[in-house]
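Example (one chain per record):
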Amino acid sequence: MKKENDLLEEALSIAENGYAAAYQFLLEEYEKKPEQYGPQTLYFLACLAGGDDLPEKALEWLRKAILDNGWWYRPEVLEDEDLASLKHNPAFISLKSISDSRYADSVSRTREVFTWERKQADKLFLAVHGNTQNGQIARDDWKPLLRDDTQWQLETIQSAEPDGYGTYRWSYNMVSYAPVANAIEKIQNKGYTKIVCGGFSAGCDMLLRAIVFTPARCDILILQSPWIPIMQDHSEEVVNAFTQKNIALRIFCGSDDEDCLPMAKHLFEVTTKEGIHVEIAIQEGNRHQFPKESFKLSDVD
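Predicted structure:
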């Protein structure tokens, strides 16, 4: 079965040529095994239906997600323009109120989750999830790199900021990255012969902020589909951090990732110019996702 993120990226690709086809595609995939898909899929179905001028269908999906399944969403996402036709609908207003209340409750209770407890192998890989993801998704995405190599210990750090039911996000400020920095600092002097940190999307920005603004360091930084707004104002500091801490950099990005590919190329250019040990791989046919055939960690050592 396809990963949920891959399925949603495919739906987005189809939607570029029309919402109707994208909605039908995602609906058919969902109906095969509905129990396998979470809040994001139902949200996409609602937005695609709304964008295809099917407001009642959109409302049905939100009702299923919020009332039937007990899920909720970050308030801003329910203000998406694809749901604009529901803005004054009393049923939608009620659903959004329920969702917003659950979100507020989650914000008050959520804390970061770092899975590391003790040193269990010679080398350590720390995985950082992207937005609308969680620690388990990060583990599942990065685990194939290790190829069950017992020399490696895989751990994850999960954000303290809820995004939606069961998912979390990172904000691009001077606070959100702190759990990532703290996690790296906690394990960097525990006797590992090598520490590799891997981030996906927004997780890449958190890793860069960690090595720039704190003593956190690792041996190799792997960035997959890097969404890295830190480069807008702190490009020089990023380069200096790699140089001073002697961190090798590996960048991976899909050829069809229109938002992140320019950022990936820019990071490669500025770090290459300063003599940092950096490599970049453009994954043909990929959008904002991990490649279908995962690279091996030995490929980036």
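Caption: The chain has ten helices and nine strands.
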